[in-house]
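Changelog excerpt

This revision adds worked examples to the README so contributors can see how folded entries look when concatenated. The first example is reproduced verbatim below.
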Amino acid sequence: MNRNQHTLPTFPSRPDIADDPWVARFVVSLRDVRHASPHTVANYLRDLGQFARFHWGKEAPLPLDWATPDRDAAQRFLHAYARTGAKPTSTSRKLAALRVFYRFLLRAEAVKVSPFATLRPPRRAKNLPILLTEAEVTRLLNAPAEALRQALDAPTPPDPLTRYLLLRDAALFETLYSTGARIAEIAALTNARLDLDAGVCRVIGKGDKERLCLLGAPALAALRAMRAQAPLLWPGTDAPDRPVFLNRDGHGLTTRSIERFMKRWLAAAGLSPDLSPHKLRHSFATHLLTHGADLRVVQELLGHASPATTQIYTHLAPERLAETYHAAHPRG
């Protein structure tokens, strides 16, 4: 291995990493057991390929002996990656990916110890998440509905596909804000997991854990309108295993497409195009706390394993905290 590999300004990945037998089995597990998206699988392959090239070089023949890297080798890789100027969050994500891979190898008894198990992620500043105000959320959610109204008022009515796409975007963003779900959870939502009569949906979150999300009246109305239009274009889309939200070809949405749709409607609403769909999740949590929701209830709705993860949103709802303090403290 060339010592200069440890000081490369960038970290190229091995393009053949998916051909390694253990990596190939890991990818199958990601897709079939963890239900990882293609984007997530690609990220894992890049991370594994970067570590493999860093440790073994680009010419080492496959299969690689994943039992040979020790803790020092793992630490050298992460330190070298951090020295490229990578953000602590990026380095932490890479560490998390390699830990997941080695846990897979441990369960398969391919290795006896994980070199990444005891490494700590780099410290990072706890930046408060950026969110939309309630007024901004209203502008964003109204944008596709307003576009549909304008299309219906035009001399030539919109074709069925255009009508569906506008109804879909209205329902999509109403659902994201109503549930506080992650975009990957909503992209993967199927008809079987949606109960409009009960006003709930069941999403599969991190760690393949299922949780119940609530749907408010605007989201339910938007979903019903969208679902009434879909069968006119694609018969059978109401089957239990079909995705709730469809693209123009009648297939499920990707997280990237949802991000693209949001940029469109942010622009239409006169809002910053740098805001992401995940900001609706931040806004959901903060607005609930501002209006008096209990922190543990918000934790449950978000699917956070620890209340500490949800705690950051209390910094974004100072009015509610002050109100609670003055109401509850004997000398507040």
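The second example, added in the same revision:
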Amino acid sequence: MKKQSTAAPSVSKGPTGIVGAMRQELAAVLAIMPDERRQSVGGRDFWLGHWHGHEVVAVLSRIGKVAAATTATALIERFGVRRILFTGVAGGIGEGLRVGDMVVASSFVQHDMDASPLFPRHELPLYGRARLDTDAALSAALTEAARAVLASPAQALGADAVTTFALHAPRLHQGLIASGDRFVATAAESAALRQALPDVLAVEMEGAAVAQVCHDYGVPFAALRTISDRADDAAHVDFMRFIDQVASRYSAAVLERYFQKLTD
């Protein structure tokens, strides 16, 4: 028996934008869209289709904040999306995060934003704030879907992937994600981030830029990231294999549950 939804994914009508930084991160998602058609805008391929009858526009943002902001703007201006979901991988920074865990962002910060002494470190100039919150209802819907998937990871990934990556008890976390135009891959960098942002859970390179664009346009935004490494010197997991066998499949499974319950 399916558990009843406790949160409405969104009250906005219109297409949903699904964004991932790399093709591999969205491979399983695109495989599910039965009627996708490609449209190229701004050097990017946008896949238009439906998921459980809901309009969807899926796109690869490419890597980095500028690329992500360009992509989010095109989704809103050209395709008229009414909500944006970002999915993919991130490095775990917070205590207790392990490879294979998921993080649903409650807010984003640009860890490399520093316009001091004109503005405090991390504060977005002329915004009067450093952190941008995600949409509460949209994030709650993603959280519900993610919890259901993590309750039985083998169902989404297959037993071989669970064994290979030791994903026997993956957990879901909610909180701050930091974005920056630098790949964090050493223990020293991770420690510096934790010192500057004590409550940060994960680090990646796109989400805060999408959050800023969605804030400017008033478009609901939520993000789900699978932890692929600990963003330190021990980050030696087979990255592309992890994305293919774990992160991409997790994304597809979570979004499948999300769209099953979405009411436009």
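Reviewer comment on example two: The longest helix spans residues 239-261. The radius of gyration is 17 Å.
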